[in-house]
Amino acid sequence: MGELNFQDIFENVRTNPAMVHCITNYVTINDVANIILAMGASPIMADDPMEVCEITDMSDALVINMGTLKQNTVRSMLLAGKKANESRHPVVFDPVGVGASTFRKETAMKLLDEIRFSVIRGNISEIKTLHQWSEKSYGVDAKKDDIITKDNQEKVIRMAKDMAVKTGAVIVITGEVDLVTDGETVYFIKNGAAQMARITGCGCMLDGVIAGFVGSNQENVLKAAATAVSAMGICGEYAQENAKGTGTFKVHLMDAMSNIDEKWMERSNQIESRS
User: Fold this and answer.
1) How many CB atoms within 10 Å of residue 86?
2) Global pTM?
3) Rounded CA gap, 211 and 10, in Å?
4) Which of 24, 105, 176, 182 could make an S-S bridge to 65, C-beta 3.0–4.6 Å?
5) pLDDT of residue 134
6) Do 13 and 231 touch, CB atoms closer than 8 A?
7) Would you list the DSSP string of 148-167?
8) What angle (nearest 5°) sits at the alpha carbon of residue 193, between those of residues 192 and 198?
């Protein structure tokens, strides 16, 4: 049940590459587009209400990222999300900094009320805020005490599973250790590199990678999302090993994403599954 077949997942990405529509953070939009291209999918960035429904309808997956939130963009997010649901396309939601302002929290609540998400990805502080509506988020970074440890692991698993059941979405919690669950199966992923936290946009890029994998594997959202998270972490490990600084780190990250395949995944993944 929990075993991942990387060959099938990557084969679908190669033979049926997804077009990914991104309504995302303008700080990182170029990197998001490039990482989607690197994995073999096709990005399209459109956030005007006049065209988002048409663009969403012609795409295979949608990313909604709250990184640089604006009122007009919220309208576009709602229009695109509803069109994606109508077209039965997967939607990836990133509630960036959801607890940082009333506007962000109210927007996230409205999006969750009106759109069915396939994947919700955030750091543990953001997911806790969505789950409890009582935590103040730590900007776009997780609080120092909001990490998955042996002591709180069971509590985090219960929260993530409960969130998955309530929303019908695969929940992805990223951090030093990543957690991916559909409410039943749980994957713990230990791939990744500390240097990833030193450049802007790794989380936004991951949104695009998840959407690309899920868009090509719509019958297997959980396993596609877990593979995407591990693949991004493996690329980060490669980049940290080969880079001379944060500038070249990003270049090596892109290079790795353009070359990663099932054999590299089999060799390097650090995924543990449990029910």
Assistant:
1) 11
2) 0.94
3) 14
4) 24
5) 39
6) no
7) --TTTHHHHHHHHHHHHHHH
8) 125
Residue 139 pLDDT > 50, yes or no? no
Query: What does the DSSP 8-state code read for residue 33?
Result: H
- Taking the C-alpha atoms of residue 189 and residue 229, their distance in angstroms, rounded to an integer, is 8
- Is the four-CA dihedral 231, 237, 242, 246 of positive or negative sign? positive
Given a contact cutoff of 8 angstroms between Cβ atoms, the answer to whether 61 and 214 are in contact is yes
- pLDDT tens-digit map of 39-48: 999 999 999 9
Burial of 79 by CB count in 10 Å (0-12 exposed, 13-18 middle, 19+ buried)? middle
**Does pLDDT of 141 surpass 50?**
no
**In whole angstroms, how large is the CA radius of gyration of the chain?**
17
Residue 144: partners with Cβ closer than 8 Å, 6 or more residues away: none
E-assigned strands of 46-102?
61-65, 91-94
Mean pLDDT to the nearest integer, 103-108:
96
Structure-token pair, residue 174: 């990223």
Predicted local confidence at residue 136, as pLDDT? 44
The sheet carrying 61-65 orders its strands as 42-45, 19-23, 61-65, 91-94, 119-123, 170-174, 178-181, 186-189, 271-274
Between CA 206 and CA 204 the distance in angstroms is: 5
DSSP 123-148: EHHHHHHHHHS-PPP-TTS--TT-S-
